Amino acid sequence: MPDRAAWRQRLRRLYVGTDPEAVRFQWAFAIVDLVIIGFFILSPVLQDFQAFLWFDYAVAFLLAADLTARAAAALSLRQWLRRPSVWVDFVVLATLLAPLWLANLGFLRILRLWTLSQKGLFWRSLRRRGYQEWEDVGRAAINLVTCLFIITGFIYTAFARPDSGMEGWVDALYFTVATITTTGFGDITLPGTAGKLTSIVTMIVGISLFVRLAQALFRPYKVTFRCPKCALLRHEPDAVHCKACGHLLAIPDEGES
C-alpha cells in the first residue's frame, strides 16, 4: 500500500508539479500530444493507407495510458471525472478504439486540441517570459482552430459524396473557411435544408469566434486577479484599488503569478 501511495504521489507530481523534472515530463507529453493532433487533422487523408489502423490503435494505447495515469494521480476520482476535458478524452478514445464503427464521429478527435489548451503548461511558460498578455489571444485562437476543424470534419462526413461537388477533405475545409469568413464564393454549396442549416450555424459560430479573437487581440491588456471583496477578476496591470468597489488590491508581480 505505501508503494502504491508513493507511486500515485509521483504521478501527481509529474502531471501537476512545477519542478524541473515535472516540467520536462509535461513538455515531452505536450509534444507527443501535438504530434497526435497532427495525426487527427491528417486522418481523412491518411485513412486509405494500410498502416493507418496500426497508428490509430497506437494513439488509442497512448491516450488510454494517459487517462489511466491521470486518474491514478487525481486527488479525487469523482471530481476528476466531472471535468469536461476528461469526458472529451473518453469520447476521443472511443473513436480510436472503434474506428470502423464510429467512423462518422472521427471529426470529434480534434477536441483533443482543446483539452491540451486547458493545461496550464503553455500559459505558465508565457507568463514567465513576460508574454502573459498573449494568453487570451492564444486561447481564442485555439478555440477558433478547434471549431474550424470540427466543422470541416462534420461537413466532410455528412456531405462529401461523389456527385456533391465536394470531392475531398480539402474541399470541406475550403467551404468551411469561406463560410466562417462570410466570403461565400458559392462554388461549393451544401444541398438541402440540412445543408442550409449547417451553413447558418457555421457562419454564426465562426463570426462569434472571430469577434472573440479580435477582442483578445485589440482590447487593453488586463491582469486576472479576484478582488477579495466584490470578486471582480479583470484589473489594470498597475491597479492599486479595485475599480468596482475600491478595495485595496495586492496583485502579485507577473513573475510571482
Automatic annotation (TrEMBL):
<dbReference type="Pfam" id="PF07885">
    <property type="entry name" value="Ion_trans_2"/>
</dbReference>
<feature type="transmembrane region" description="Helical">
    <location>
        <begin position="87"/>
        <end position="111"/>
    </location>
</feature>
<dbReference type="GO" id="GO:0016020">
    <property type="term" value="C:membrane"/>
</dbReference>
<feature type="transmembrane region" description="Helical">
    <location>
        <begin position="140"/>
        <end position="160"/>
    </location>
</feature>
<keyword id="KW-0472">Membrane</keyword>
<dbReference type="InterPro" id="IPR013099">
    <property type="entry name" value="K_chnl_dom"/>
</dbReference>
<dbReference type="InterPro" id="IPR003938">
    <property type="entry name" value="K_chnl_volt-dep_EAG/ELK/ERG"/>
</dbReference>
<feature type="transmembrane region" description="Helical">
    <location>
        <begin position="197"/>
        <end position="218"/>
    </location>
</feature>
<dbReference type="GO" id="GO:0005249">
    <property type="term" value="F:voltage-gated potassium channel activity"/>
</dbReference>
<protein>
    <submittedName>
        <fullName>Ion transporter</fullName>
    </submittedName>
</protein>
<keyword id="KW-1133">Transmembrane helix</keyword>
<feature type="transmembrane region" description="Helical">
    <location>
        <begin position="21"/>
        <end position="42"/>
    </location>
</feature>
<keyword id="KW-0812">Transmembrane</keyword>
<feature type="domain" description="Potassium channel">
    <location>
        <begin position="145"/>
        <end position="217"/>
    </location>
</feature>
